[in-house]
Amino acid sequence: MKLTLKIWRQKDANSKGSMQTYPIDGVDGDMSFLEMLDVLNDGLINQGEDPVVFDHDCREGICGACSLMINGEPHGPDRLITTCQLHMRRFNDGDTIVIEPFRAKAFPVIKDLMVDRSSFERIQHAGGYISVNTSGNTIDANAIPIEKEDADASFNAAACIGCGACVAACKNASAMLFTSAKVSQFALLPQGKVEATRRVLNMVEQMDKEGFGNCTNTGACEVECPKGISLENIARMNREYLSASLKG
Ligand code: SF4
Ligand code: FES
Q1: Total tally of structural domains belonging to the chain
Q2: Ligand 2 binding pocket includes 81 (Cβ within 6 Å)
Q3: What is the DSSP-derived secondary structure letter of residue 142?
Q4: Is the CB of 169 under 6 A from ligand 2?
Q5: Which end of the chain has fewer beta carbons closer than 10 Å to its terminal beta carbon, N or C?
Q6: Model confidence over 98-117: pLDDT tens digits?
């Protein structure tokens, strides 16, 4: 396949970026999207040019690092996959593909297609944990009975990989889907009840401090989420927040 890539190039957070055009030949349909970018970078390096910087780690849909906006969609045209799981057979010979970083005030560009998502880490640090006694008296998790429905919903929320596609898809750059998944995975379990009140208050406060926008229920986040995180989590977080505010 011969393709034309239009890629966002930006030296660093303080420089002005621009779209650059790169023709690429010999792309195989069985290549992943990131392997196709590897081929492009090999060519750029051989020509003595600066390779395109993009984020990646596991390359199997686990880490959430591969945050690319492809033809205007976070993680590209397929549903329920990350960029590293997208294959070039999804494109046709002669296509032009536009590749940009995830754009949000709270995700500043580090270089080219790589953004800084440490704002998500700070939201997690604000309350995304439980306190467990590890002094030798730890209770076996299986000793606490949990309704199957709650266990399943908690597990589904815990599938969030923190990729940031929900923020990139949202016209308000809201982080409500991510934060609500991280609140829900604990709120649904007895182990998460101890810190429940301060968790939701602190995580929402940190989310606002980071400069993410408000949720206006467009649902774009749910559509683009590679892990199928449901909007129900946002409703649950809003209930948790209201109840915590009244207690507070
Ligand atoms: S909710 Fe979905 S889109 Fe948002 S960070 Fe988690 S996995 Fe990514
Ligand atoms: S590189 Fe880890 S999810 Fe894509």
Answers
A1: 2
A2: no
A3: G
A4: no
A5: C
A6: 999 999 999 999 999 999 99
